[in-house]
TrEMBL record, chains A, B, C, D:
InterPro entries: ACT-like_dom_sf, ACT_dom, Formyl-FH4-Hydrolase_C, Formyl_transf_N, Formyl_transf_N_sf, PurU, PurU_ACT. It comes from Rhynchospora pubera. NCBIfam families: PRK06027.1. This is Formyltetrahydrofolate deformylase. Residues 32-112 form the ACT domain.
Length: 314, 314, 314, 314
């Protein structure tokens, strides 16, 4: 799912890295590397030897080899001296190891050198998730650049959001959808330069064509505890099922509705005293936390696909 | 769902009550009353006036009137002096009020005067729930009498359970089921004298005929977070769905498989590091707690049916 | 603790009630009544009879009589027709019952008739709780009027908050404290017209003199799981104690620092991977939820003092 | 804290390993290695290279380098072929690396080759934790051998436990303590051959002399959320403090009472409806889970000391 992220390693990044490493500021940086390849003997040894040989110091390693599968996943964090290990050499070092092990995925990020991930947020009428993301972003707790907001709802009532966006220079695109016109072509153009998309309670179903054309990851928040309560109005579904726990699920979007790999789930207790309104309010509180947690984990390269419908969340 | 409990008010109970109230022991008792009737003005007033007029002192009241429904539910706990308010008068006082309000349900229990609920526990091969129930029962934390254990599994391997049952004089009936012979007729005879049944991971589906013939409540534990993962092997279903939270659900048994009103649900976090075995182990831990909690609430008259598929759990 | 609320029953309220009850809008309202008095037989009967005699329909009752104490607490919700039971008659009816039972507390609220509670929010440098309160307030989820914000921090950096307050006409009072000058006299004047105060991470200790002069309830959020980690820098205290769970506590302010009756507590798991920064971030997330939950419960008359250091939270 | 475990690598273990590796059964085993040393470049590389060079395949690595400390912790799991990498060679390979990096700790375990950890369980009157441990042990869920139970309580009432122990050949030592005679010398002799001790609600304080003489790890369960509620009757302390969450804490025993490094903590919600009895019951449920979780983690070499009062729990 993070495959698309690899494409972001632009010339800009290399320029920046060079600029930094020749400047007078500290040459020590924090790098993250994730790796996925067929399992074999010696992968950890090779990766860690590579880091050590360049003077890098590993702070954190996570390795995961699913039972009875021949796949290897890892994520490493390490400190390195960019004068000894320039950003572009770091990149090519890991690429060589990737080739050696036939890696499906080998991605490096140096958060303080690389450009931040660029996202677009798609929303509809309910804007609690959108507002929460904007607040966390303003507080510096969501390490992304927000290219734009796209909504099929005019939001003329919530002038608060519109003013916030204006103040921060984030465009708000109002694309009212109609039967037979989901405005997906316009959306594609608007999100072309993003690294991934966030559906913050966007209530339209993106077509398979859109998913293929966009080609990068899309993270959705579903206001139900998947795989229960797929589709429309999950809070009402849960209310009518008489559940004693409600939940929210953040997941990757795939063609099959609400069936993509789950990244994070959260629950809260309900009782007979709760009505549909309080189900919705409790759910909204969960959705905000569950979505921002998923985005944060994703940006830190903690989320990897695993088999067909699963995720590794390091 | 507690309707069947009303039938337990046998002559024995009245005898006991009389015996107690004429004895030299303290005449103060703790009573519980639950009530369900069409909503109208003055129900709480009438019930509480009845208790007060007999010198009873209310310790706890719960009232629930669902939004947009014309139904009233209540549960009261009160202290009373059985010399001033004998057990049988108490019964008839509430029956009069029940008639007045066309109550669907008006049940009184005085735990220290009335006989304990009698149950039978149905189990299959997995006995973690059965063992947990027996342990809690032995510790005095499940206020029931266990008439018998019925299982379609011989349990020759677990001599521990068999010895425990022998020591406590609880019969263990081994009824191996076969295609076309679920032994339900024999089961019906064995459970005739019970107040409700507990399915402690009984892996056979009880027929509609059995449910009707038994006619009283049956509490099941399902090792999944209903309405997700109905039917067989819910732990495997959850594992394959890549969920990040697993759960257990205790619920009333109805003819529709795993769709009866939910009493209690509990969850625990899982991650990619969990395999099917640890899913099962975590689930078993939840199942034990969820089932015993449901039984305890039920015995305290806290669980009432609500609409079609819901429960009030006071 | 809600004693002070009684004083808010101003002439305005009566005027409003009269205006409403003579208007063409629906005369049906939702009332809340809380009661505390020495325990005796017949209290529920008398309260519910009063409501029923005026045609009121009880939707919800909570009664609590602590073990071995002779105190009675109740909270009732009921629907009533204000043409049959005008707001001022309602008030005097309950006052009579209060007198009869020597009630320490008998408070009625009709949220759609009575003025909203007026609060002031005190804050310091950290503004996550303040921002969260403002957002929930704007969304209509905190049923209060915010008279003003008082802070010992200029907040020149967070223009977002200042703009929000300007737009909504909420004064922001910057009262820098100094050794020996806590500006409490000015604060007292600013909060004179409020019903209760909220300390949204206000890092100054209010003097006993201030508490007495203000005389109404003050709700604080503490970023630790009281009674652990009282006083300064509880996140650091928790970090250094090596705990595996961190928490937040909302409580009433009393003269003894961080020892007032607890209203709500929430926890989150931490591990060796968490550093002080992530302790703080996780804590802030808890604080926001814990504080707004306490305010909401308080406004709904759910929070009552209980013994010396406890609360009933219906 | 697991330092003492190293001493268990007896000749027996090597004999067993040889026996197994020369037998006809599968020569593939699962090994665990934990390591702690001053931080430097290349540790992961060296460890993983060692495993790879012997054909071992790493399944799982956890590395932890605390911020601003120069310490390195790791835990690796790997599959290996004992014909290619005999148990004793494995041991000496890791010992060499330990020497190279001046390791404070380098412990290997091969659960299917090495003897199980031997423990003694100390208990007092309350036996819910003891019974729970015995049940989990019988189910094969606690990978230890129980050398004996020591108690300062005769347990004549609970014949269930005594019979269980007799059936399984586990000695029960009744050592009634008296003022000035804690029977510690006898206890020392009884536990001499154990790898660690478990205090399952043992209500006596072990002296510093005992701790030094025993010299290995001791795991305690405290029925409160440390560092709150140290010492006696923590449930009552919590009840009187009016908390809304209660907890249990498993921790290592040090000379300072209830202040040793915390391994695991669990919480449950309480309300004004809970009395001291239900505080105790909810607490007992937590204690059982919290203690067995700590023992399980410890046996899997997941628990390492960290600074003075903390633990790494991989």
């Amino acid at each position: 799912m993070v495959g698309a992220q690899a494409r972001a390693s632009s010339s800009l990044r290399r320029t920046l890295a060079r600029a930094f490493s020749s400047s007078s500021i500290s040459p020590f940086f924090h790098g993250i590397h994730v790796f996925q390849c067929p399992d074999s003997v010696g992968i950890v040894a090779r990766l860690s030897e590579c880091i050590a040989s360049r003077g890098g110091n590993i702070h954190c390693v996570d390795v995961f080899v699913p039972e009875d599968k021949q796949i290897f996943y890892s994520r490493s964090e390490f400190a390195f001296d960019s004068t000894r290990w320039p950003r572009d050499v770091l990149e090519s070092d890991f690429q060589k190891i990737g080739k050696h092990f036939n890696a499906e995925r080998s991605i490096v990020r140096v958060p303080d050198l690389d450009p931040r991930y660029k996202i677009a947020v798609l929303a509809s009428k309910q804007d609690h998730c959108l507002v929460d993301l904007l607040y966390r972003w303003q507080e510096g707790r969501l390490p992304v650049d927000i290219n734009c907001i796209i909504s099929n709802h005019p939001r003329t009532s919530n002038t608060h959001v519109i003013r916030f966006l204006e103040r921060h220079g984030i465009p708000y695109h109002y694309l009212p959808t109609a039967l037979g016109n989901k405005r997906e072509q316009e959306m594609l153009e608007l999100v072309e330069d993003t690294d991934f998309l966030v559906l913050a309670r966007y209530m339209q179903i993106l077509s398979g064509g859109f998913l293929q054309a966009y080609g990068k990851d899309i993270i959705n928040i579903h206001h139900g505890l998947l795989p229960s309560f797929k589709g429309g109005n999950p809070s009402r579904q849960a209310f009518e099922a008489g559940v004693k726990l409600i939940g929210a699920t953040s997941h990757f979007v795939t063609e099959e509705l609400d069936a993509g790999p789950i990244i994070e789930q959260m629950v809260e207790r309900v009782s007979h005293k709760d009505n549909l309104t309080s189900f919705v309010m409790k759910s909204e509180n969960l959705e905000k936390q569950c979505l921002s947690q998923a985005i944060k984990s994703y940006c830190e390269l903690r989320v990897l696909p695993y088999e067909n419908r699963k995720t590794v969340v390091f």
